[in-house]
Amino acid sequence: MQAISTDSAIAPPAAARATDSLGCLASKLHKDQELHGGGLSFYRKHADGAHTSQVATPASQRGFLVGISMAEGHRRSILRGKQASRHEFSRGAVYVRDFAEDYRADLHGPFDFLLCELPTAFLEQVGADAVRVRGLKTVTGQPDPVLAHLAQALAPSLAQPRQASMLFVDQLGTAIGTYLLQHYGGVAVATQGKGPRLSRVHEARAKQMLMHKAKGNISVAEIAAECNMSGSYFLRAFRASTGHTPHQWLLQQRVQQARELLLYSELPLAEIAMICNFADQSHFSRVFSQLTGASPGNWRRNAQA
Predict the structure, then answer these.
(1) Which end of the chain has fewer CB atoms within 10 angstroms, the N or the C?
(2) Nearest CA to 48 among 28, 22, 18, 63?
(3) Same domain for 132 and 207
């Protein structure tokens, strides 16, 4: 996973006209975050102020771009020849556009978008067990609470990419791809619990690999390749076999290890968090509380009472 995060990045005067890979003027961006994983590219683009900026990308075979508005009040004019269409974005409104078409737009005022670039090859892989993917329906300014929720879940990883779990990013990417295929591509994708299961050998090997890279610094693609299957197929099979995604399963193993240390040692919480491969004590407390219903400190006191 390649991680890049540049907040409050104001380009020097010499680069004032430089644009990024999505056609945005780099000098206008106050937040410019980037994260790559699982064959996808994620971006967070934010600009303040009441100015009008432009974005332009020539037609290419890059696939599709999905944008989720993280704030209220964005407006843009999409230019097609001599005509322009105006669109307003509330928080959670999305657009889906095809890179195969030229794109020009005037962006009016501030904006804050989380963007996901999906190569055509990724969509074909996710939908490989359904039907051939012909493309996605393009929409602009359409409310989509599911994508908004996924964007909120992904935002912390973009803000701190060096602490992001590759497993988590891969799984979110697959979830986004699957959702887009179902709702914008008309593809029926296998649902949880109805897909194939892992063999005992593959399940054991997958769990072994997950535990060996207990910090989550292993990709779904690596484990899937070991099991001789695609990433999306592996995720469905692992969930059908265990009832959890790989990331969820690994968090449970960490919490179980933490329980034993809380019960049978006097180690401080910060040290337990480090031993169990949590990012820090705050991350440890948050995950432990979510899975057990009690903070680590309260759980230890109740268990030893």
Answers:
(1) C
(2) 28
(3) no
